[in-house]
């Protein structure tokens, strides 16, 4: 048998998918090492990786750098029309959220951020970079850009907490109108490093531009989600 034929890849995909669907390979469980799987399916590592890559594209398995392959857990529902924040959204679905601050600083706004927030050239913004987990798994890298005039001293607070709650409690600022843009993309180097995956891995980029209750442009978020971590669910009212 030729190990590198499409038939071999299809056979491996079907076998692993069947095991996942029947719960024999549990969600978040680690798959055997590639060498062991290659021996099991009597194939080459190249063919095996092609099969795993196809399953990864379908959202059934995922890979972490230096850790190996895992079965993807259930996705969380993301409804842009509901006013909530990451921790509340995840907890409401019976999952465990966590946030890690990667960096927080005042910096010159780049051209994209200036455009999103309506700033003039050479303006400064607060940048907060965070990585977020669901049930211990890294799923989201986000860059927050805040208009500094509205949030003086914010870098002195605990930035692992919800910014939505921090804005309300410390600055009497609440979200008003929000604009969302969503596009499939590939993870850039910083996002990939934060999520412990290879640069260029597939992702969903969600750009949020937020106004407050007075209509002022106050911040924007650039979210990079692992493509298998969420599904977008929106119900349109009558």
From TrEMBL:
InterPro entries associated with the record: Bact_HTH_transcr_reg (IPR050679), Chorismate_lyase_/UTRA_dom_sf (IPR028978), Tscrpt_reg_HTH_GntR (IPR000524), UTRA (IPR011663), WH-like_DNA-bd_sf (IPR036388), WH_DNA-bd_sf (IPR036390)
One Pfam family here: UTRA
Keyword Nucleotidyltransferase belongs to the record: no
GO biological process, one term: negative regulation of DNA-templated transcription
Domain HTH gntR-type: 6-74
Keyword Transcription regulation listed: yes
Annotated signal peptide: none
Alphabetical list of Gene3D superfamilies matching this protein: Chorismate lyase-like, Winged helix-like DNA-binding domain superfamily/Winged helix DNA-binding domain
Origin: domain of life: Bacteria
UniProtKB keywords: DNA-binding, Transcription, Transcription regulation
GO molecular function: DNA binding; DNA-binding transcription factor activity
Protein name: Transcriptional regulator, GntR family
Provenance organism: Phytopseudomonas argentinensis
Taxonomy of the source species: Bacteria, Pseudomonadati, Pseudomonadota, Gammaproteobacteria, Pseudomonadales
